[in-house]
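Weekly modeling sync, notes
Attendees: AB, CL, MP (scribe)

Item 1: holo prediction request
CL wants a bound-state model with zinc ion before deciding which constructs to order. AB pointed out that an apo prediction alone won't tell us much about the pocket. Agreed to run with the ligand included and paste results into these notes for async review.

Input as submitted:
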Amino acid sequence: MKLIIFGPPGSGKGTYSSRLKERFNLEKISTGDIFREEVKKGSELGKKVEEYLKKGELVPDDIVIEVVKERIKNCERFILDGFPRTLKQAKALDKMVKIDAIIKINAHSEILIEKISGRRICSNPKCDGNYNIADIHKTIDGIEYILPPLLPKEDMKCDKCGSPLIQRDDDKPEVIKERLRIYEEQSKPVLEYYKRKRKNKIPFIEVWMNRPPEQVVEKIIEGLKNLGLVR
Ligand code: ADP
Ligand code: ZN
């Protein structure tokens, strides 16, 4: 099974792909994670991409395509997260493998902004505790959102280590709006390409991020079942 997952920042895409990975024994291939790791290791590739990551700019297509090609070589079961991001990448991927389905996560930007603004992480750099104070009950364009908060047991202190919780700089509203704008701008031509492509058209599984992750994942799995990809 070969999948692509598309979704705006704050849509929980990372969580869904991790759960799908566990459930169906897939390799999760996230280009963002790969690049961050290489930068940390200070590898040849890391040095090449460091500046782009720092500025939040796209890494040149040739580099990204080469990395993905290497990773999916001999890989029968995977979920791609963060790739393809450009038309050139989508076309290159077409030449490499046949993708079975594209999972597209939908959400209104108003909800994403509220959800991302509600994120709180543990201030201890060695701890990965993360929480969300946003409590969303709202219907927009007929989509009912029920997204309860994920609060620490003690007021604004990490359950795991007791350190105070903080907000990440790029989780502030102005930065979020900019990240959403960039996502729209980048993903649009790629999604249009997949929707337009006639021959061997790849099926879409579209789900709304309007319930907690377990329920969204269940909907994705239902879509995979309908396509006969899982039982
Ligand atoms: P975000 O969702 O915060 O943009 P990602 O984790 O998906 O982050 O990616 C982090 C960075 O890695 C991007 O800002 C970009 O520099 C680079 N990157 C990741 N995937 C790609 C890709 N498919 N094409 C080009 N650059 C990429
Ligand atoms: Zn902690």
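Recorded for review: The longest helix spans residues 173-196.
Action items: CL to compare against the apo run; MP to circulate these notes.
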